[in-house]
Amino acid sequence: AQVTFRRQDVFSADGIQGASYDIIVSNPPYVLDSERAEMSANVLGHEPSAALFVPDSDPLRFYLALARYAAAGGLKPGGRLYFECNPLTIAALASQLEADFDEVEAIRDSFGRKRFIIASLRS
């Protein structure tokens, strides 16, 4: 298989031209700022805040930017998005993705919480 990894600013349109992938996988920051006090000290001590937290007022910012990128040619028709998500915002994310994606499915983690989304770009 041919695998291409790409590092790119999700909020920048630079580099979209010519990029069309079968799969996009992302585990973006998704912990709400209001959840900060509940986080374990070992997580807070080893992860930069920018890798963990999103504003409560805009918790889907990374997901929606990736979805726009995918729908604008970043994904091939029928290509899939795979996201790790916050169980508190996964229903809102699934609803937003249904505009451009088919088979939007929320999957439970080993603790039974909806934690992952798989979505296929409409053909």
Describe the protein's architecture and organization.
- The protein is an alpha/beta fold.
- It has four helices and six strands.
- The protein is globular and about 45 Å long.
- The model has no long low-confidence stretch (mean pLDDT 89).
Based on Cα principal axes, name the global outline. Answer: globular
Structural class: alpha/beta
User: From the structure provided, what is the oligomeric state, counting identical versus distinct chains?
Assistant: single chain
Poorly predicted segments: none
- State the end-to-end distance: 23 Å
**Helices and strands, in N-to-C order?**
EEHHEHEHEE
User: What's the arrangement of strands in the largest beta sheet?
Assistant: 1-4-6-5
Chain-wise SSE layout:
Layout: E1 21-26, E2 31-32, H1 41-46, H2 49-52, E3 53-54, H3 61-74, E4 75-84, H4 90-97, E5 101-108, E6 114-121
